[in-house]
Amino acid sequence: MDALVSLSKRRGFIFQSSEIYGGTGSCWDYGPLGVELKQNIKRVWWRDYIQRRPDMMGLDASILMHPTVWKASGHVDNFTDPMVDCLECRRRFRADKIDETPWVHYCPATKGNKFTIPPGEPCSHCGVTRTLCPECGKGELTPPRQFNLMFKTFMGPVEEDASLTYLRPETAQGIFVNFDNVLQSMRRKLPFGIGQIGKAFRNEITPGNFIFRTREFEQMEIEFFVNPLETVEGRPADEYWHERWIEDSMAWFRRYGLGEENLRLREHEADELAHYAKRTADIEYRFPIGWSELMGIANRTDFDLKQHAKFSGKALTYFDEERKEHVVPYVIEPSAGVDRALLAFLADAYREEEVRGEKRVVLRFHPELAPLKVAVLPLLKKREDIVRTAHAIRDELSKDWSVVYDDTAAIGRLYRRQDEVGTPYCVTVDVQTVGDQAKGEVGDGKVTIRDRDSMEQIRVPLEALGSVFRELLGGAAWASVAGRFERKGDG
Ligand SMILES: [Zn+2]
Ligand SMILES: [Zn+2]
């Protein structure tokens, strides 16, 4: 994890928010390369799930909603964690997690010496277990109190209870409250889904682990509505579609580079299921912090639509033409965090390799996710014709892809820099490309393309660059493209 955090900062992926003021708890800013990576994740998600599927549509609901939404959803009453406060240092802890961190102890058996003791263990000198504040080691703790995780705010100029509302803790409710709008305006038949990408906020007591758990985060959520009266392949429609979404979601993460061995499915036990959920499965990823939830796929039944119908007084039903009756659809909810997905893609792509006796750090991003697709590098920056050609290539390729020009170091160094940020291809322009007028030599009009993963190089005519990158960045294997061109030594 430390390697990822440090690379992220050094190479412009992720910075701590408000760092010059000492930072804020668990907020992070995406730098120039981080924002590209994040947008690529969201773009392929939107394309694969919303654009390409005939049964899906998009939505962008507002972050601030009517406060009753959160009563109906259960968040006002149930979205809480039990908290205890230290009476001495005023720090606040989650009562159910307090013994998961090391604790400070002033041991009476050793003249009050200060020890930091591993989580959950007793003192090896006096044998006591933790009862006081784990941070300062001195304060008594209050009894647990329920603390709501929603961020409160006020609508309008007056800070009074009547104008109290919340920053949404999930994007899902924006979809539920628009169910009828979408149904009527788009004239849909079940099953269909509505997808949304957007920010959500949770006042987590113990955020941390870099961008894994943050108070402000982005979600990619789908609510897929099915007719509970129907059966598909002999199974109730909701169960069939739940299974399909689990398989699709797993396949999606694998397609964009997460290793099979780093992904697993975890079914929620009966006692951890939300009371309205029929079944929930988490896709877990082996993060640097261990196996943790990457996304959840829940069968939320008709709970949400029924709750909103009850609180709003509006019917949120679907008319089943075949059976001539109104039904409340069931909902399958595949819900993923953008930031968490980004951390998984980053962790899975990170490699330290040894190349010709030197360490090479490389991010083996899927080309569609890589923040930069191509780097154009002039071999000699003093040769005006080489530099001009390189700039022209960058300008041309950047019409379709994110492409950089870099001449700030020697070529070997430039390659390593691009490897480190996961750029799949480099193009170098050299003397051979442009020739040498002083010696009466004409250039061959070819440039070198270097592949990040194999480090193989091929010579490609300038006029073929566009079509070659269309193939390579469109998913063609390097070997199948490289075979058609002249090979050069590895770079
Ligand atoms: Zn304390
Ligand atoms: Zn002790």
What does this structure look like?
The protein is of the alpha+beta class and 491 residues long. 27% of the residues lie in helices and 30% in strands. It is built from 14 helices and 30 strands. The strands form ten sheets. A seven-stranded mixed sheet has the order 3-11-12-20-17-16-15. Strands 24-23-25-28-29-30 form a six-stranded mixed sheet, with helices on both faces. Strand 18 and strand 19 (325-327) form a beta hairpin. The model has no long low-confidence stretch (mean pLDDT 94). Bound molecules: zinc ion (2 copies). One zinc ion is lined by residues 105, 107, 109, 123, 125-126, 128.
Q: Which features does this protein show?
A:
alpha+beta, 30% strand, binds zinc ion, single chain, six-stranded mixed sheet, globular, seven-stranded mixed sheet, 491 residues
Give a brief outline of the structure.
With 491 residues, the protein is an alpha+beta fold. The protein contains 14 helices and 30 strands. A hairpin with a 6-residue loop joins strand 4 (80-85) and strand 5.
- Low-pLDDT stretches are none
State the helicity in percent bands: 25-40%
- Characterize the largest beta sheet: strand count, sense, and whether it forms a barrel: 7 strands, mixed
Distance between the termini: 29 Å
Bound molecules: zinc ion
In round numbers, the mean pLDDT is 94
Q: Shape, please? A: globular
What structural class do helix, strand and pairing data support? alpha+beta
With strands numbered from the N-terminus, the spatial order across the biggest sheet is 3-11-12-20-17-16-15
* Proportion of strand residues: 25-35%
Q: Could you tell me the number of beta strands? A: 30
* Rg: 28 Å
DSSP summary: helix tally: 14
